[in-house]
# Entry
Amino acid sequence: MSRGPERLRGDSVRFAEVEPFLHTRWVGKNFFHWECLDSTNTQAKFLVQTTGCHGDVVVCEQQTQGRGRRGRSWLSMPEGGGLFFSVLLRPELPPHCAPELTLVTAVALAKAIRGLGIEVWIKWPNDIQVGGKKLVGILTELIADGKKTQGVVVGIGMNLNGREEDFPEELRGRATSLAVVSGKPHSKAFVLAMLLQHLEHWFDLYMREGFIPIAAEWTVLSSTLGRRVRVDLGNEVKEGEALHIHSSGALVLRGDDGELFSVLAGDVEHLRPA
Ligand code: BTN
# Structure
């Protein structure tokens, strides 16, 4: 029986281990490392309301109450199986631009992981997948004061060195890890540094040139566009073809009734290839 990929012993995301690989100007200049946290997003949101700066990184080895989109929980694999971190942003942007940051993040992560030799795709809006299985999830949270953005927390959970059998039964067909798809374990510190570097590059590009270059890259990396999909809007489920991404970050679809509609927040299920 195959034991699956070995884990790297002693690998951690303490700053001393990440720093040798980290060549950023502003992401991770303040680096808050914890052995165990309930949620890196909750901790980063606390920083937004107190002393936190643009580019602060909150990371932990173990996460006990990881949060996912739409009130779901995020399974945080123990013992080096996962990477859990949040980046605090204080962009000069109105609150309605926050969903775009999810797509900027997805592009940055997909590019970073492709740089590690794994062909990943983005499922709208925030899943990074390999072969239709989830590798990374992104939870973007806005902290605003009326029309003023106080901060945005971008939280990232990546299945890193977990083996197939480490996933609970109900996730096995739907989730995978970097180690499973590449057949070898990866250094948490190195992968975190690569992700942070790409995040800085793509955040900088977005702040300099706006959403158009991001949407172009997102379109190339998307596994959703051109597909027939089912969209869960919370109060309604619709089916149609995913056409393109709107400048607001919304997904534009043609419903089965021929009407165009767009979705800014919801769950998408791929029904069949284009
Ligand atoms: C999703 O796919 O629903 C998003 C999952 C995001 C999980 C990460 S793990 C690090 C950060 N802290 C959290 O509580 N959630 C995000």
About this structure: The helical segments are 15-18, 40-49, 98-115, 178-182, 188-209, 212-221. DSSP finds six helices and twelve strands in the chain. Residues 14 and 97 are 32 Å apart (CA to CA).
